[in-house]
Amino acid sequence: MRIVLGVSGGIAAYKAVHLLRLLREEGHQVDVVPTRAALEFVGRPTWEAISGRAVTTDVFESVDEVRHVRLGQQADLVVVAPATADLLARARAGTADDLLTSTLLATEAPTVLVPAMHTEMWRHPATVDNVAVLRDRGVDVVEPASGRLTGADTGPGRLPEPEEIHAHLRPLLDGEGACPRPADEPAAASDPIRAEEASSAAGPLAGRRVVVTAGGTREALDPVRYLGNRSSGRQGVALAEAALAAGAEVHLIAGIVETELPAAGPRLSLEHVESARELQQAVAAQAPSADVLLMAAAVADFRPADYAAAKIKKTDDVDAPTITLTRNPDILAETVRARPARGGPTVIVGFAAETGDGATDPLELAQTKLLRKGCELLVLNRVGEGLVFGRDSTEIHVLASFGVQGVLGDVEPAHVVGTKREAADAVVDRAARLLVAAGGRF
């Protein structure tokens, strides 16, 4: 596919470099068309090195090729990320004062604009009007993400992550027609604030509620010490972000995490817990109203049987204390068992962190756990020193119960090696496919 990737002059231009790489790795021919301001953030050599194509910004460069018209005419897809408030205004007005706006004016290919700007600029009546007009013309103006902006500001206006943009483009890249668009309600489509509140993302989980657990748990021994684990929470956060990108309403139950949590918003609510029993209560309260439950939290199997109200002292005349452990509740199995009576998720996804025991392969242990727990899907992580914990990369196997293997067409466990976001996308995709196919229970 021939793609034009426009880049306008915002600080988020650096994210477009990764988007370019994702497109190139799929074999697409990508012509990068930055504005002059964009080159202040990311230089021409970077774009040319990754795209393998010459980069120009002005209509008077490569005049013999009539580049300002040919790029748009020959494109199968035009994407602008980031699209600043200024770029949106110029696109709406139909100006052609540089190569990017000339290309936008000359193309008949599907056009996707991915805005990035400060919240006040996104909500300004001029921008609201510009977005409404562009959408009325058939341009796909993607809703910006909500989160940390330049400086200390936070709110809607953040450029979505490159993986989210890439996922949004998937239908076009696969030749399946238009990208998912906001619902055709005029007020929601023309007002960015109302569009957020209306859960405008029309992905495969639009209108669905997803509950995600993330991070580790801590089991108090005394007021100072606790039993814990090495979970960073990154996989759980990636799952929440993937579910949001798929259009879901997400409730994230976060235990102890060592990564930045996404900002709460119209489609994302946050709840914090510490111990396994607190997590048990939170899941029991949230599961009955969920369509999907993603149990990515690393829950402690045991806790101290006795809690010392005062710090346990180390003295020379006292032997080292013996700590007696008691078993924590099996939250995953409990939720599956409670589902027929209390209602709840159509799809429950468990996670298994396995090291193997020298005699048994982790995949065999995960198969046994899937049968024992009774959930629809189980995600196996091979863990240990230097593996998975705290890293952006991961390797997972997604196992399906016998009852849903035929639905997915995945008799063998799906195998994903890549970033935790790529793993999350694979898990969320399977959950969404099960929901569509199920129409009820398995």
Automatic annotation (TrEMBL):
Record keyword Ribosomal protein present: no
One Pfam family named in its UniProt record: Flavoprotein
Residue ranges that the Swiss-Prot or TrEMBL entry lists as coiled coil: none
Molecular functions (GO terms): ligase activity
Domain of life: Bacteria
Flavoprotein domain span: 1-167
Cofactor: Mg(2+); FMN
Pathway: Cofactor biosynthesis; coenzyme A biosynthesis; CoA from (R)-pantothenate: step 2/5; Cofactor biosynthesis; coenzyme A biosynthesis; CoA from (R)-pantothenate: step 3/5
Cofactor detail note: Binds 1 FMN per subunit.
Binding site for CTP: D301, K311, P329, D330, I331, L332, F351, K369, K373
Residue span, DNA/pantothenate metabolism flavoprotein C-terminal domain: 205-405
Family affiliation: In the C-terminal section; belongs to the PPC synthetase family.
Function field: Catalyzes two sequential steps in the biosynthesis of coenzyme A. In the first step cysteine is conjugated to 4'-phosphopantothenate to form 4-phosphopantothenoylcysteine. In the second step the latter compound is decarboxylated to form 4'-phosphopantotheine.
The protein, known as: Coenzyme A biosynthesis bifunctional protein CoaBC
